[in-house]
């Protein structure tokens, strides 16, 4: 699959996720009354979070999003304040567009967003579990053959697009790549095409790996130079990354993985992944990152709201990731690479 034959597909995902900005904005103004809460003056994020009755995750989805929309901003003391734009969504300022925005306040997406923000999810959780997440003994869509197939194939286009780019940015190596929660496996297949002596393990749930094996067959039969030889260098390992022993590896790739999980689980995963690295091994994270100031970019705050809606996670900043990697005993690199579709790569190294 040639890399340069199509443009960066980011406009497609940006437009698809733009509805989350609308839901957050209208829910914040009309259901949470978050703009009125700031109308008396700036508040520290923790004070505002307490005043609105929000847990950490919804606050960290909503506050960066409203900053990215230029409705709120941080002042020099790190407090949140209304911008000259955001003031016009309070009742005390004329003209105000509060009631005009209120025309949409009963939209089902807005109402559900408000419920999710106030409860850190829906009050009654779905019996089928959370998309892309397998945790504990509860049911997971990733263990149901039909939904696992549909969810995995839904990610196949994104992975096909990004994997060739990621493969050129990851280290050249003759050793082993662990593609943890690897889904379709495309990131491994493309990396093995570039690293002709290397091997890879795709680790995921059994029902997901059945789909990955079919896609590997297709990949090997694509006629691309070297593709047929990839098959014998890939191993599929079914398991639970939260509890099972992970294979030792030189490079560990966590692609679109941490963003499915809450902060404490991310910290736990960082420790587990660090332990799976051989001396001088590298942990690479491919994801969409909030900026370190937690006020954008808009494409990522929209994505964060989508992740908040469908998974147990949200988008995180590079600073948050590097903090977990450091706590896990790794040395984070200050390097950061862009790939496409608003994703990028950061990495950290294990000592000798
Ligand atoms: C958002 S997908 C990312 C897939 C792939 N890395 C990509 O970028 O296309 C998350 C993956 O994590 C897997 N996963 C979730 N919980 C898991 C667990 N406890 N153990 C192993 N894999 C898990 C899911 O089955 C799913 O394939």
UniProtKB/TrEMBL annotation:
GO molecular function: methyltransferase activity
Gene3D superfamilies assigned: Vaccinia Virus protein VP39 (3.40.50.150), Winged helix-like DNA-binding domain superfamily/Winged helix DNA-binding domain (1.10.10.10)
Domain O-methyltransferase C-terminal per the UniProt entry, residue ranges: 176-330
GO biological process, alphabetically ordered: methylation
Domain of life according to the entry: Bacteria
Keywords from the named record: Methyltransferase, S-adenosyl-L-methionine, Transferase
This protein's record includes keyword S-adenosyl-L-methionine: yes
Pfam families for the chain: Methyltransf_2
Record carries keyword tRNA-binding: no
InterPro entries associated with the record: COMT-like (IPR016461), COMT_C (IPR001077), SAM-dependent_MTases_sf (IPR029063), WH-like_DNA-bd_sf (IPR036388), WH_DNA-bd_sf (IPR036390)
PANTHER family for this protein: O-METHYLTRANSFERASE CICE, PUTATIVE (AFU_ORTHOLOGUE AFUA_4G14580)-RELATED
Name of the protein: Methyltransferase
């Amino acid at each position: 699959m040639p890399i340069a034959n199509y443009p960066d597909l980011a406009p497609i995902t940006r437009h698809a996720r733009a509805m989350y900005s609308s839901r957050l904005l209208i829910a914040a103004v009309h259901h949470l009354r978050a703009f009125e809460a700031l109308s008396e003056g700036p508040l520290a994020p923790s004070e505002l979070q307490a005043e609105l009755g929000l847990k950490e995750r919804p606050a960290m989805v909503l506050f960066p999003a409203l900053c990215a929309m230029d409705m709120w901003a941080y002042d020099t003391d790190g407090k949140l304040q209304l911008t000259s734009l955001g003031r016009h969504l309070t009742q005390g300022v004329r003209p105000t567009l509060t009631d005009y925005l209120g025309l949409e306040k009963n939209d089902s997406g807005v109402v559900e967003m408000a419920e999710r923000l106030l409860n850190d999810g829906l009050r009654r959780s779905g019996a089928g579990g959370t998309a892309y997440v397998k945790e504990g003994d509860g049911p997971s869509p990733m263990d149901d053959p039909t939904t696992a197939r549909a969810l995995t194939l839904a990610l196949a286009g994104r992975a096909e697009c990004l994997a060739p780019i990621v493969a050129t940015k990851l280290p050249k190596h003759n050793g082993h790549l662990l593609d943890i929660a690897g889904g379709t496996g495309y990131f491994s297949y493309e990396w093995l095409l570039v690293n002709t002596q290397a091997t890879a393990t795709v680790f995921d749930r059994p029902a997901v790996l059945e789909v990955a094996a079919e896609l590997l067959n297709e990949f090997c039969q694509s006629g691309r130079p070297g593709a047929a030889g990839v098959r014998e260098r890939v191993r599929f390992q079914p398991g639970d990354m939260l509890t099972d022993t992970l294979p030792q590896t030189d490079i560990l790739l966590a692609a679109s993985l941490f963003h499915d999980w809450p902060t404490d689980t991310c910290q736990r995963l960082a420790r587990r992944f660090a332990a799976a690295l051989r001396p001088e091994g590298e942990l690479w994270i491919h994801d969409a990152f909030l900026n370190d100031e937690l006020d954008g970019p808009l494409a990522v705050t929209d994505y964060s709201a989508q992740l908040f809606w469908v998974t147990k996670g949200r988008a995180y900043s590079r600073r948050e990731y590097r903090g977990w990697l450091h706590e896990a005993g790794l040395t984070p690199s200050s390097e950061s690479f862009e790939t496409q579709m608003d994703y990028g790569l950061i990495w950290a190294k294990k000592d000798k």
